[in-house]
Design a protein that fits this description.
The complex is a heterodimer of chains A (341) and B (315).
Chain A lengths: L7 H28 L5 H6 L5 H11 L5 H13 L13 H36 L4 H15 L2 H16 L22 H8 L2 H39 L1 H8 L4 H13 L3 H7 L1 H15 L4 H10 L3 H29 L6
Chain B lengths: L1 H10 L2 H22 L1 H4 L8 E2 L2 E2 L21 H37 L1 H16 L2 H16 L3 H28 L2 H8 L4 H13 L3 H21 L12 H12 L5 H28 L29
Antiparallel strand pairs in B: 1-2
Helix pairs in contact in B: 2-4, 2-12, 4-5, 4-7, 4-10, 4-12, 5-7, 6-7, 7-10, 8-9, 10-11, 10-12, 11-12
The chains are: A mainly alpha (341), B mainly alpha (315).
Chain lengths: 341, 315
Amino acid sequence: MSAGSGSLPRYIVQRLLLIIPMVWLLLTIVFLLLRVAPGDPVSASVGDRLSQEALDVRRAALGLDRPLIVQYFDYLGDVLTLDFGNTISDNRPITSIITDNGGATLTLTVGAFVIAMLIGIPLGLMAGRRRDTVGDVAIRTFGVVTYAAPVFFIGLMMQLWVAAPLGWPTSDIASPITKFEVEPVTHILLVDAFLSGNTEAIGDVLLHHLLPCLTLGLLLSGVFIRLVRVNVLQTLKGDYVEAARARGIAEKHVIRRHAFRNALVPVITVIGLQVALTLSGAVLTERTFNWPGLGTQLYNYLIARDYAAVQGIITFFALVVVLVSLVIDIVNALIDPRVRY
Amino acid sequence: MFNRLLSPFRSTTGLARWILLTGVVITVVFVVLAVFAPWIAPFDFNQRGIGADKFPKMAPPSGEHWFGTSDQFFDVFSRVVYGARTALTVVALSVLFSVVIGVLLGLLSGYLGGWPDRVMVFVMDALYAFPSLLLAIVFSFLLSGPLGGGVVAAALSLTTIYIPQYFRVVRNTTVSAREATYIEAARALGAKDSTIMGRYLFGNVIQSVPVIGTLNAADAIGTLAALGFLGLGIQPNEAAEWGYDLSRALDDASAGIWWTSFFPGMAIVVLVVALTLVGEGLNETINPSLRKRRIRKVVLPPREASTTSTEGGVR
């Protein structure tokens, strides 16, 4: 960015202005792909069940009989007012899908990040500290394998070899997620369970979260291991580490206070970069565990060949990715002044 | 020629060499499985029995069916072997397509500069920011109509998600190479733009392509399986596909049947790890800045005997 513009508000404004063309382009890509596609969305999803007249009525109701350019500006306008349209197959507003099922995806991804950090950061620090030892090689192998293994395969193995012997919930009883009726206040089950104050329900909801979060978390932990390890190696080479050693500070303090702390700064950036990977992983994890989130909804509408629903959900995912990376960038600028230049 | 190709490999040491070798050996095993699938697999990928005799349904691994059979009466071992053929074909095609398109666009964009360059960079950045699996889902959702659920449709839906990476690398190297003396010399000699790009720039900007290619291949194996797992990509009547087999195995897992998911899943894991190792190994071999040399560092002895430094020693 422009040199010397070190003020934080200015950086935030710059960053905000930059996402406008980005969002516009993403929306255009989604629209072009799904609307200009060969075949017509209505007949693709319900064509075999309705007569020609009924199909025309549906088309008109969705505005698909209008010129493409009109539909395009309509779509842009709708998305700006956070209206993602209605599904074709069951004529449901996408926004209601997002509010009903978004909570489950949110708790899944947040839980996965927590687990990924709990596993990834200590292992990464250890591997970096003891470079090229047996432990380092073992941890790196673990990182490569968890990253290489498809998340749905890990999920299946978890169901087979962890959940089944322990009597934990597996795929066929993960949805509905809990047998306890809790008032859907926020549509985030975990929060709703806490609000109801029913300890049994809280325990049950947490237990249901454990395996899916662990599965997705393992995938992400590979990323953290790699990153933290490389950062430790780099900071250990830094002049200030050398200087600390030269001042006679005990090696363990050098490692803890000087090397580790600085090695953890980029972790927050990586969280931002991994949002896309996490969402992709969440779609697959949800399908594996029959998790009642947006990924399962996306899967169901894909199978139903419902273009409008797929378009709406994908648009929402794209917006989430852009917004989260914006927030992470701003947080990063708050923490690390070097970013602003 | 052969000696020259191998010379960077000879200069590698220890771990890097082992990583590369292990990766190459495992990958070659999978290539052999893929090429000779009809001879290695005891049955066809969609064979449900011999003549009128059906295979047992969901039978555990045995002498007759090494990896057991599935709920569709398929022999799991044969499906895994044929799956290697599908996976490697799709991945080879998609990497080839994306390299050709990405390198070409990157060269043009970087060499021409100006507003075409800006537009291209902008579009590629947007594509890169998009969650890759979702992009692949959208493409295979669209292509499955006109192209069917075959190998080519699957390869094309994977192609788009990898183009931006080649584009970026090639464009950036082109931009910096464009001002180099040898390009200026070529221009002064009256070389046409196409000659400059084809003869002088191309060879200098594609050096990191093999590394990105193998790492993308590893990623593509996983993405293809993910598409299959979601019921997209390769359709079951076209070819054996590991991801599809895993989605069929979802229902078996709750019944405690492990062989229908374990073997195709392990095939994915092993192949992805192998390709990743090749990529990492290549990176350390080709990229001189990453190559570790045998230089002895001068390190002051630590003050306390109890804390041994891991830095230093032979690197």
